[in-house]
Amino acid sequence: ISDQKPLGCWSVKHGQILTCPVVCNFETHEFIAVHDDKVLRIWKSEDINLDKAFKATLSAEVYRIHSLPSAGPVVLFRGGGVRTLDVLLEAPQQEIENVISDEVIRWSGAFMEGQEPVLIFTTEKDGDFFVYVQKPKLSSLHKYRLEQQESSKPLCFTAHVTNRTATLLCLYSNDSVYQVLIPLQQDTEEEEEEEEEILSKSLLLKLSVSGAVLKGTSLVVLDKDHVAVLGSLTAPGKEPRECLTIWNTKFQTLQTSKELPLGTTGQLWCYEEKFFLTHGKVLTVIMYKCETSSLAAAVGKLKDSQTPDVSSFVNWNTLEDEELVVSFQSQESVALKSESRMNLRSRRNSVAKAQPETLSVGQLLLNLKDASTYVLEEELRQLMAKAPTPDLQATIGCVVTALTDRCKTNPKYYPRNFLLQIVETRNLSYSLCPDLMAIALEKKDVHLLQICLERFPDIPEEITYACLNAFLSISEAHLQSIDVNLDSVICYIDVEFDDKEVKTEIVENGFSAEMEQDMCDTKMPKEAQSRSDGESCPVGPQKAALLNAVLHSAYTETFLLPHLKNLPARQAILFLRYLYYLYVKCSEKVNTTLPGIRSPTINQIMDWMCLLLDAHFTVMVMLPEAKELLSNLHKFVRAQVRFYSELNKIEGSLRELQRLNHLRDSQTYSIEVLEII
Q1: 20-71: pLDDT as tens digits
Q2: Do 610 and 467 fall into the same domain?
Q3: Which residues contact 446 (CB under 8 A, 6 or more apart)?
Q4: Has residue 615 been placed in a domain?
Q5: 80 torsion bin: left (phi>0), alpha (psi -120 to 50), beta (else)
Q6: Considering only CA atoms, which of 405, 318, 408 is closest in space to residue 369?
Q7: Which residue windows are transmembrane per the record (predicted)?
């Protein structure tokens, strides 16, 4: 999520439908899915084709699979039956009992009580709501009726288990949260038939503050004293606004809230102290950590100078994709810098025990806001030198942000050497200093951009494209005067001395220009051949080194392709010529690897070549200057395919030869003749 890169994608066949959320089996590191209600699929991350994954057809329709870290997955069927995955896989066609009659499951959750998994689910029938508690390993089942509420009904549920008691929280349509306590009973060997017990509920929280009412749609528990509610905040005379809110249930107060102007789906998830919600078209992840509840914290009257205001319970700065702003009101904002721009962090428990050095970071940066350039840089250098190890990354992020803020307010100010020193010696990321590369692009600082592309793991595709466009646009003459790291090109690129090209022709991998000509039955003019056949590099060493940095940058094809389509045709052709040159160079080597430090790999070259052709194929076909390049590329690839096809034909003989070499006594001299048929 931090790098915004997909790690895997699997699809069911056309016509099949995934009918419940996919979960991960923590014990086996496998994914579990159900499609078409009854077909169970299990696969691992390295599996590519979902159709070839493990398949089991069940005898009843599945409602939901719940995965518990220490107990394995639990399967809940639409009829209310529950099985652990292990028991289910022993006999997939086993009969599943119908526990509920004419009831519809509205919510379910799985929890651990000691060493035993407990599954709780709620159902509805004719306006009545029921609660079921099942212990699948003990074959235990208890059914309860939920006390009715006049003129309102439950909208969503959540629960947690502590001290042999399940606490069910219900968000009702009257803008209130009710609490229901369910004892987790000890089961006797012979259970007598009991009457249906009615669960009473108590009012936990009214979702209203200062005349505004929150129409909640999702509810999650943070800890025993805090809940988060996603919904629409309505106030008299104002338009409803979607908000994420955090409430203190102990003192009935609104802890903090944030408006979501781009809208949500009404769904909120919480897992391992992180919120997950969709904001517009973006998945937003919010990290939080609740402090021990106190009345002073609940009403924002903490007297301890070392503890931030309650208003900073969660720092929301990055939720709307705004720039990361250095906030000096609390030390927690310093810790925020170590997270992705998609991530938010609330203060941690240690905030109340914060060291004076942590507080001095924000105060120092605030004091340096209007300081002279010399004083600013000297103080920032000293700050990085004495930064404590746990907060080092956060401190450096604040330092870079302070410098970029100064650059934005003063266009004449640009501490190039200082920024280069920080990027080269510190383990930074794009999310720690998102304005840095934008300012480097504005200043045309290609050396800094090169270092960032090589070192930052989470550069957005839009910035990667902007760097590529800038590198291709800069003239070779201008690049001659710029300091660029040439380590990635110096070992293979053709360099000119006194207007004479120095080339080392290595004929390996079964390829040479003559062979390529013979196999394609095509003659090329010498002028065209020297220009297009990949023998000479179409760009200078400086530009080649910059382009190599782009090739090394991580990207997602789906996000990069729309930007790549905006690349001017002339620059696209130049880039394709360079990729073709690299492809030929790689093919000259037996191991298809270019020498040098951070040199592009054959996979990177091929991927970018395919991307570029996908983005500009129609334009290139129409342009006369590109036709010859495409033709030569086609011929070269066809020659390579033919060559490897010939190798495949003698693969069996080569393996036999290798086997004979192992059997032969290496100290005995002999001459053998092998006939290859």
Answers
A1: 999 999 888 999 999 999 999 999 988 888 888 899 999 999 999 999 888 8
A2: yes
A3: 470, 471, 474, 479, 482, 484, 546
A4: yes
A5: left
A6: 405
A7: none
